[in-house]
């Protein structure tokens, strides 16, 4: 064996972690991150790195770590013995942040034959002193003490195990223990028959297998006990309101939209034209001959649907909060000419409202088509436009009591962001007498019990973390958390706003969305920011337990937690829906594909179907459990409905322009051979006004996750791929499942032209 060969073998390369590969080396850059555990030394015949790239820590400082690492040295070679000082501990800063210290003799000599017994003893003494791993971060420093305190802490497996089947994949995703694997196996088997839309059966709805029933019951009791003992009184004392008449409320419900909208709706071959006035609605079965299994309503609320959220309740009446786009009176600035960016600056207060609609249900939990929907309550405020709101996930009052035993019908706690730059929580209730009439109750709220401003910024998103805890993200990257059951939350509401118990800079830029792992993982939160990254934090130790996802090329404007797969779902730039599991947050698992930019996604805590809305107006559903648990499965996908909008047509089209589009006829035109399709058959009123078209009845299909943009076959490589631009009013702007256990098949979708569709879409 040559001297050069033995020298290369003696200088052992740094072993690679089985958890951190080269492409994920950035995940351990934090000083508080934990080492990945023990490793097997990796022999490599390549030349070692130059000494100039080495970081040399203090050789006399012994790391305070509980990990032991066996250093394997080749005993071949010759040289003279040296003292302790000649064997410093060296750690290279390469692609791995976790480095294993290496004992290397000076002047290229190795430990082996030819050494004196005294020199060999000194060598082994030095080796034993520095054989433990030292966690080095780029920029220097160590954090072995913090990591050694929790040796099992990890950010996840960097790559799937190369050898193995579904069992190994599930262990990589959910953990190696039986209690980690049992919930996902039960979830997979329970919803095995559901491909896309939820099955219309009481047995198809249930709480997550990952959620402990004891924990849910304890949280329910704690929330309702707090509300009964102190919460209800605190809101009653701090919330100032008065009743308005219908005439007084008109200014609060006004918007700049037209008084009516033409809607083409019905069977694909013979659609019907309806003119919906603002505030009116029709049954979704109206234009169809078969009306038995169609349970839903189509509303025209005038302007763009800003947000729509179901209240959590198990009563026979379900409540839906809806807000439409409202602007301040007076001339509006033109696009791209606003001197103050509305996403970073607050507006002056102006009148606006939130509508609360009530929908009846039968004894089976299905939407009752015989009961007309009613506008039960209109919340009128002078705080500017409501931009986003969320209902408390747990009803604070005992809604299972009979209505005749209550003075008021308590709907829930509604947290919202208004354009004046403040976050408020409203206690929403209805008078008992109002539930027996069809009249609308108009309530003006001038002061909220929980009213919080933000210094030098505005709130951008919010999310309930439990029945009493609210988290708010801001435009400067800070996160604030309040717990309503804390005694200091409401004590200073008359003098100073309540101070959050958590207020920390978690991002360097704008926080776009905020998602929580409630109910099974309430301590885990995920955010998307304007820099393209998504980040996950454990609120118990946010400084050390956090990680980032793969960077996206577009802004992620929608973000949700999928309870059944224990992952956060969000769109990417290729029009696909990605899952980021907790243990593999920095890896994308794709389950759905859209034909346009994804604008809204929604998941349910009581069933696994995901709703996905796009800029083209399509709403599609799928069950991702099969795809997540078995990567070879191609998931099914089904379109709930497709919505299109066009503006007024100035020039009357010719007969050649009247043709069938991909989803059906453009207008209410008979395309049979006997019917002349000339221009005289198109009414002038039909063309001079905007028109919306809704088509449905699509079959389920398997689109495949591989998107066409990845195709290697390019017909004309010199021409770039085209991008379709859709009308702004066609987009899906609001999407939500009903979170209640008995009514989990109810869904709502809001559109950019003011249409709102509420339907029980169980099959």
TrEMBL record:
<protein>
    <recommendedName>
        <fullName>WD40 repeat-like protein</fullName>
    </recommendedName>
</protein>
<feature type="region of interest" description="Disordered">
    <location>
        <begin position="647"/>
        <end position="681"/>
    </location>
</feature>
<dbReference type="InterPro" id="IPR015943">
    <property type="entry name" value="WD40/YVTN_repeat-like_dom_sf"/>
</dbReference>
<feature type="compositionally biased region" description="Acidic residues">
    <location>
        <begin position="23"/>
        <end position="32"/>
    </location>
</feature>
<feature type="compositionally biased region" description="Acidic residues">
    <location>
        <begin position="43"/>
        <end position="73"/>
    </location>
</feature>
<keyword id="KW-0804">Transcription</keyword>
<feature type="region of interest" description="Disordered">
    <location>
        <begin position="1"/>
        <end position="121"/>
    </location>
</feature>
<dbReference type="GO" id="GO:0006383">
    <property type="term" value="P:transcription by RNA polymerase III"/>
</dbReference>
<dbReference type="InterPro" id="IPR052416">
    <property type="entry name" value="GTF3C_component"/>
</dbReference>
<dbReference type="GO" id="GO:0005634">
    <property type="term" value="C:nucleus"/>
</dbReference>
<dbReference type="InterPro" id="IPR036322">
    <property type="entry name" value="WD40_repeat_dom_sf"/>
</dbReference>
<keyword id="KW-0539">Nucleus</keyword>
<dbReference type="GO" id="GO:0000127">
    <property type="term" value="C:transcription factor TFIIIC complex"/>
</dbReference>
């Amino acid at each position: 064996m040559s001297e050069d060969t033995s020298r290369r073998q003696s200088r052992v390369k740094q072993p690679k972690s089985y958890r951190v590969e080269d492409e994920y080396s950035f995940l351990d850059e934090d000083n508080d991150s934990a080492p990945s555990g023990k490793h097997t030394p990796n022999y490599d015949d390549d030349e070692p790195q130059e000494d100039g790239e080495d970081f040399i820590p203090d050789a006399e400082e012994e790391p305070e770590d509980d990990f032991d690492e066996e250093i394997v040295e080749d005993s071949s070679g010759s040289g003279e013995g040296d003292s302790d000082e000649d064997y410093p501990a060296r750690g290279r800063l390469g692609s791995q942040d976790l480095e294993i210290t290496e004992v290397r003799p000076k002047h290229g000599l190795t430990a082996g034959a030819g050494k004196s017994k005294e020199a060999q003893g000194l060598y082994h003494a030095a080796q034993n002193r520095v054989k433990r791993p030292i966690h080095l971060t780029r920029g220097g420093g160590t954090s072995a003490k913090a990591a050694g305190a929790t040796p099992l802490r990890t950010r996840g497996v960097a790559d799937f195990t190369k050898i193995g089947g579904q069992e190994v994949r599930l262990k990589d995703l959910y953990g190696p223990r039986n209690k980690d694997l049992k919930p996902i196996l039960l979830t997979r088997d329970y919803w095995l028959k559901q491909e896309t839309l939820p099955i219309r059966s009481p047995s198809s709805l249930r709480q997550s297998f990952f959620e402990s029933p004891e924990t849910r019951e304890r949280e329910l009791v704690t929330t309702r006990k707090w509300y009964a003992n102190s919460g209800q009184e605190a809101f009653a004392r701090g919330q100032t309101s008065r009743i308005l008449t219908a005439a007084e409320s008109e200014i609060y419900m006004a918007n700049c939209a037209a008084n009516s909208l033409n809607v083409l709706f019905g069977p694909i071959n013979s659609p019907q034209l309806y003119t919906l006035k603002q505030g009116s609605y029709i049954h979704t079965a109206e234009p169809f001959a078969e009306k038995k299994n169609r349970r839903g309503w189509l509303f025209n609320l005038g302007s763009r649907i800003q947000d729509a959220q179901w209240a959590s309740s198990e009563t026979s009446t379900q409540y839906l909060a809806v807000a439409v786009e409202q602007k301040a009176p007076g001339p509006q600035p033109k696009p791209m000419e606003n001197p103050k960016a509305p996403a970073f600056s607050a507006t002056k207060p102006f009148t606006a409202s939130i509508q609360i609609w009530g929908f009846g249900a039968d004894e089976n939990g299905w939407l009752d088509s015989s009961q007309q929907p009613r506008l039960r309550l209109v919340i009128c405020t002078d705080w500017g436009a409501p931009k986003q709101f969320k209902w408390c996930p747990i009803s604070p009052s005992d809604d299972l009591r009979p209505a005749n035993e209550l003075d008021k019908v308590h709907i829930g706690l509604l947290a919202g962001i208004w354009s004046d730059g403040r976050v408020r929580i409203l206690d929403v209730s209805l008078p008992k007498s109002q539930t027996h009439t069809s009249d609308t109750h108009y309530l003006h709220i001038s002061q909220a019990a929980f009213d919080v401003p933000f210094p030098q910024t505005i709130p951008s998103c919010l999310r309930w973390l439990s029945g009493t805890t609210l988290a708010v993200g801001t435009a400067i990257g800070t996160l604030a958390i309040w717990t309503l059951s804390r005694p200091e939350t409401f004590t200073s509401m008359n003098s100073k706003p309540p101070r959050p118990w958590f207020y920390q800079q978690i991002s360097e830029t704008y926080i776009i969305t905020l998602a929580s792992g409630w109910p099974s993982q309430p301590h885990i939160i995920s955010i998307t920011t304007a820099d393209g990254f998504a980040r996950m934090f454990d609120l118990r130790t946010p400084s050390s337990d956090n990680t980032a996802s793969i960077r996206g090329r577009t802004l992620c404007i929608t973000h949700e937690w999928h309870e059944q797969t224990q992952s956060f779902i969000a769109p990417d730039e290729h029009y696909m829906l990605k899952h980021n599991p907790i243990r593999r947050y920095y890896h994308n698992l794709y389950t759905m594909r859209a034909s346009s930019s994804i604008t809204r996604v929604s998941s349910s805590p009581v069933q696994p179907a995901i709703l996905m809305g796009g800029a083209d107006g399509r709403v599609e559903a799928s069950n991702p459990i099969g795809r997540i648990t078995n990567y070879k499965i191609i998931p099914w996908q089904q379109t709930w409905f497709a919505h299109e909008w066009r503006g007024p047509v100035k020039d009357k089209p010719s007969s050649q322009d009247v043709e069938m589009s991909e989803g059906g006829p453009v207008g209410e035109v008979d395309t049979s051979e006997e019917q002349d399709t000339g221009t005289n058959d198109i009414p002038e009123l039909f063309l001079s006004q905007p028109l919306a078209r809704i088509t449905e009845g699509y079959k389920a299909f398997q689109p495949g996750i591989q998107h066409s943009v990845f195709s290697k076959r390019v017909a004309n490589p010199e021409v770039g791929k085209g991008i379709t631009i859709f009308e702004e009013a066609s987009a899906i702007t609001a999407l939500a499942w009903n979170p209640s256990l008995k009514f989990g098949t109810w869904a709502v979708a809001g559109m950019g032209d003011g249409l709102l569709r509420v339907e029980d879409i169980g099959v």
